[in-house]
DNA sequence: GTCTATAAAGCGATAGAC
DNA sequence: GTCTATCGCTTTATAGAC
């Protein structure tokens, strides 16, 4: 629809990933998007409004590429194989050193951290979280169809929270990407084994 | 040693927990600590230097109260019981709605998030992380003495990363404290069961 | 070591033309 | 819708007295 608006949101994700929410300057954002500062205030109420929209944008983009890889085979990737492999792929998707993934993960982490002090961001965040947990729970259900719903949800909450913890460590340089990915894969194995015992 | 210095660091943790790293204003910090702005610049090089010292301070304080509860029985708390209970207590310690715990967790989360964009904070952060993982791994070793060292470390990394993820969700209002604590306890159970299978 | 006062710069936000 | 120009407050940081 509105090209400029989208360009600003894309640029906002880029700048947030580069400088953090704390470091986001409307002037730098304007330069990145190739527009004037005033236009940003025209399209978005104020700085916080901009952040809220950016969070929604980042969420959508993440959902979009998760859906893509779930549906059709990625170009250059193998066939999806079984439900366990699809689950692993979905969870490991955020732990990749590709520019747009890193950008999305960084921006997401930043906006989540900001929500601790900015209640306006919480609605968006909670919504995304619920959707994401539900998705993972569904995929776990395909791996372990006999497991009770509540156990699937609990496992999904643990796995997604772990993913966020590992991602934060990776992005802050405390944990290597390789280790983060290994811990994530192990956790999936451990949770799936746990669900098997409940059958 | 230096009373004023410590007072400033304590106040910094308080203000960061209240406003975030981004919201930390030297003026507000000065008021909170009951000193002048200039004194803060006298004791700490600049804003970033202050943050680095505050991160170290928050780490020490967390270690201190973890050690306390591990060593002697908490006032008003039951006897420590077995190694599994001690492990649970240690990991659940950060998921409590007590003012000083919430303050420490919030400040820690903020500083960790800031480290993504501020390499000066990373050293301190990595150090604290290693110590924390080691501690949890040791406690896991007491619960499962037959488990190999590498498996203990991997489990400890997962549990501590999960704790950070759950803590972030709790503090940003996405997850209730009760749910966060439940997920943490379940995860400990799942990991301990996993380690038992490796014996 | 600690304070008051002030410089210097940064930055969000708006007015007004096109 | 979009830009240029600018206002005005906020905030970091320092100078200099005690």
Automatic annotation (TrEMBL), chains A, B:
HTH tetR-type domain segment(s): 2-62
Keywords associated with the record:
DNA-binding, Repressor, Transcription, Transcription regulation
Q: Which residues bind DNA?
A: 25-44
Name used for this protein in its record: TetR/AcrR family transcriptional regulator
Give the originating organism: Streptomyces cyaneofuscatus
């Amino acid at each position: 629809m509105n090209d400029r608006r989208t360009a600003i949101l894309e640029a906002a994700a880029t700048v947030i990933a580069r400088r953090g929410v704390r470091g986001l300057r409307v002037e730098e954002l304007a330069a990145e998007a190739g527009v004037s500062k005033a236009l940003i205030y025209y399209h978005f109420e104020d700085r916080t409004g901009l952040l809220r929209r950016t969070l929604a944008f980042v969420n959508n983009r993440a959902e979009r590429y998760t859906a893509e890889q779930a549906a059709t085979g990625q170009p250059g990737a193998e066939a999806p194989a079984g439900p366990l492999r699809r689950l692993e792929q979905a969870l490991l998707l955020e732990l990749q050193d590709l520019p747009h993934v890193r950008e999305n993960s960084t921006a997401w982490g930043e906006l989540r951290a900001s929500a601790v002090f900015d209640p306006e961001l919480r609605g968006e965040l909670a919504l995304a979280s619920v959707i994401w947990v539900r998705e993972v729970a569904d995929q776990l259900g395909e791996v372990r169809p006999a497991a009770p719903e509540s156990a699937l949800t609990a496992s999904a909450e643990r796995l997604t929270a772990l993913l966020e913890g590992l991602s934060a460590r990776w992005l802050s340089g405390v944990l290597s990407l390789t280790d983060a990915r290994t811990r994530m894969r192990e956790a999936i194995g451990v949770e799936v084994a746990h669900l098997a015992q409940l059958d």
